[in-house]
Amino acid sequence: MLLHYGADIITDKATGTALLHDCAREGKVNIMEALVQEKIDLNIQDKMGNTAFHVSVTEEKVNVVKLLLSSNADADIVNINGKTIFIIEQDAGGSKSDDENIQILSLILENMKKININDEAVTTSFYWAVQKGHSKIIESFLRHGVNVNVQNSIGYTPLHVAASNNNEKIVEILLKIRLDIHHCMWLQATTMKKLWKFFWRMEQIFPSKPKMD
């Protein structure tokens, strides 16, 4: 009701923190629901470029994340550190169970419009998912048509990362969709040996040419 009378939603002028940020940080879902009903701007950013969405995933307030998603908060906003909400969730998902973390990551992913939005190191959320080894999230990215050959600032692709981390499962997932190996730059000999082993194995499963009788 106070908002109707021009109440200031900024609670800290120095940081640009708004009431929405405070409620997200403390997990006050009931108050946030009231703010949503008042049609408050859910995407307001503080001076670090963080929205209530950024705050809620950093603080692992799962119910707040779900509320913001269901209320159509923008999942594509990047803060001044170049971090998307998706990347912050991957970093912050320590106390949640794997299933719950994957559920939240999937919800965020499905609400992202700019699936190849870059962070400050010119990597994508997809690249981070590969780095973290989230196979279910990677498969969800693929269903959304992510660019699988995206490179970071030093030319590494997700395939480089998966092979370098000896993550056979992720490499096989990437190879199944026919990665463009011409985008792959030089790797250490040991990594290349593993990589070509994976390619050979996938060729037996998915031959490039039909076998002649």
N-to-C series of helices and strands: EEHHHHHHHHHHH
Shape: elongated
**Spatial strand sequence of the major β-sheet:** 1-2
Mean pLDDT figure: 76
Protein name: Ankyrin repeats (3 copies)
Keywords: ANK repeat, Repeat
ANK repeats: 15-47, 48-80, 121-153, 154-182
Describe this protein's structure.
Keywords: ANK repeat, Repeat. InterPro entries: Ankyrin_rpt, Ankyrin_rpt-contain_sf. ANK repeats lie at residues 15-47, 48-80, 121-153, 154-182. By secondary structure, this protein is mainly alpha-helical. It is built from eleven helices and two strands. It has helices spanning 19-26, 29-37, 52-58, 62-70, 85-92, 98-110, 125-132, 135-143, 158-164, 168-176, 189-205, and strands at residues 10-12, 17-18. It has a two-stranded antiparallel sheet. Strand 1 (10-12) and strand 2 (17-18) form a beta hairpin. Residues 1-8 and 185-190 have low confidence and may be disordered.
Key structural traits:
disordered N terminus; two-stranded antiparallel ribbon; 11 helices; mainly alpha; 213 residues; repeat; Ankyrin_rpt-contain_sf
Would you spell out the secondary-structure blueprint of this structure?
Blueprint: E1 10-12, E2 17-18, H1 19-26, H2 29-37, H3 52-58, H4 62-70, H5 85-92, H6 98-110, H7 125-132, H8 135-143, H9 158-164, H10 168-176, H11 189-205
Antiparallel strand pairs: 1-2
Keywords: ANK repeat, Repeat
Organism: Popillia japonica
InterPro entries: Ankyrin_rpt, Ankyrin_rpt-contain_sf
Task: Compose a concise summary of this entry.
Keywords: ANK repeat, Repeat. With 213 residues, the protein is an all-alpha fold. It is built from eleven helices and two strands; from the N terminus they run E-E-H-H-H-H-H-H-H-H-H-H-H.
